[in-house]
Amino acid sequence: MGKGEIQIITFWNRKELISVSDLRQYSDARRLLTARGIRNSTKMGGGIGRKGGERYIIYVHEKDYDRALEIIQSEMQEERV
Q: pLDDT of 21-71, one tens digit each?
């Protein structure tokens, strides 16, 4: 990908990074990804009457998946300590 090109996240090139029910975890994850320049998109599912409640699913471009996963795992682990 050349300098200045924008990766558009579509149904065909996205990969699910995480799925959480906690709004704070969701917000923290999006903040971390955005701060490191990783574009992401969200889908919300579940809701009233469904087992498990609301779910926040974060997707990233498949080319960014490994880097995004590393960021989420290392940064969110540090926040829990």
A: 999 999 999 999 999 999 999 999 876 656 667 899 999 999 999 999 999
| Domains detected in the chain | 14-75 (3.30.70.1530)
**Alpha carbon distance 16, 34 (integer Å):** 16
- Those residues with Cβ within 8 angstroms of residue 76's Cβ, 6 or more apart along the chain or in another chain: 25, 28, 29, 32
Q: 13-31 pLDDT, tens per residue? A: 999 999 999 999 999 999 9
> In DSSP terms, which residues pair with 20 in a beta bridge?
56
